[in-house]
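DM from R.C. (forwarded with permission)

"hey, sorry to bug you on a friday — could you get me a structure for this? deadline for the figure draft is monday and I only need the backbone to look sensible"
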Amino acid sequence: MMRRLLFTTVMAVGLSVGAVNAQSVNDGSKALYYNQLNKAKNIFQDLVKANPADAEANYWLGQTLLEDENVAGARAVYEKALVATSQNPLIIIGLGHVELLEGKNAEARAHFDAALEPTKSKKNKKYGDPVLLAAIGRANADGGSTVGDPAYGVEKLTQAAELLPKDPEVMVNLGLTYLKMGPENGGKAKSSFDAALERDPSYARANYRNGKIFESQKNAAMFVDHFTRAIEADAKYAPAYLSLYEYYSDKDVNKAKEYLDKWIQNVEKDTEIDFFYADYLFRAGKYQESLQKVKEIETSLKDPKDFAKVYRLQALNQDRLGDSLAAKSTMEKYLNLENPLKVPGRAYQEMAGYYIKTGEEPAKADAMITKAIDLDTAVENKIALMEGLASVYEKAKLYDGQFKWMYQASKLKQKLNATDYFYLAQAAINAQQYLTADTIAQKYIENYPDQIQGYSFRVRALTAADTDTTSGIAIPAYIQFNDFLKKDAQKNLSRILGNSGYLINYYANVSREYEKAIAVCDEILALDPQNAAALQTKELLVKRIKK
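My reply, with the result:
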């Protein structure tokens, strides 16, 4: 579920709320904006306890539970509040929000329309109450791309934005909803986030969301800049610190630690802090210390499912400490416990690696990497996953698997560069797929005719394919290689001589084409007139012809 870091605007839906109560609701929504969920929950629970008919407090209590991914708890709050508030429209929308997350789109839409319709006045026949419009939009902005009705959400948020011209939250939710409609709407999303900053330059969430767009595009310079802007706009905005920590965690561990410390200073003290500190220790190469911290977290858990990701970090530490069997077992535990929607593709890649390292059937590793690939929509990430698994297969000397995944990765690339051809041909030779290696080498030569490696790979592949030199399939490759080497014959003389020896042996002893063998000797003597081996071989061949 996405993080809904909400604006601190107090919502009023035809309610009579006292100044003290309004401030308390404002305090609760502010805590929610900063992701201080326990503080927010306590504020709203106290308000509801004091006045069960307080629609705003009930609505925000439900939103806090949704932020904590407690959909069932939010439903219970809204169902109870429907009675206590005499079916206040804001509560009806909250229930519709829950239904969207439950996949009940039709029921949710019915609730949204039912809540909004009575608020339409002669002055504003098309829209309705702007606060309700914003709440409907927020609901449709929540969750992944398959949650809600983005087109409907854009419609309601656009209307809310017109009626709430100073509210930045509406614009950020509009941007998030555009993102649900596909990457082609990234420009509209960014424009919405920029518009939020025009409304309130201190609204750090807008800069943060801009950063997430560039992060998805792998544009490090831009996303670091926007995350930094978020912090400059609001030094208490913790998500930006965490994103910067995650970026620097495998690049500059000291800088990462600075951002981690800042994040810890601005969030509630809970298991999450211990987890990220253990993550930092892992990134810093302190695997034993990290593992110890992970075990402390595990011991404190009431239910392993509540914090399953701790087992993934445990497996990573076990692997780095050389215990791949334990890592495999722990990672399997993680995958069994974790909500599949929360499992990152990288975890399946790691599981694939453990299967290979521990000698499991390659099919298990391939199944894991296929899951990782299916989860990632970016082509470059799919390529990276495939090449990463190929590297693990190579280290395990399982060359069939290495070539299989390198070849799959190559098919996703628009154009192979020389390095791609080099490693692909090498992998095919490692896998003893010699004729395939020759085909790759020919493509290498076709695209990069001035580079020696393509010619060399052809000779290596076809020589290996014809181990007893009886078929002669490598002869054209040797001739082609020598023709290339003769462009700088003196520099390449030793290689030319080696290749010529293979040709002479085939012509003299296999195909009995003595004239061709003599012609090769003459080519050698033209480059090296005193070459004793060529002189002697030619003499013997001439005698053989005379006989």
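R.C.: lifesaver. Residues 493-510 form the longest helix (18 residues).
me: no worries. Confidence is low (pLDDT under 50) at residues 1-22.
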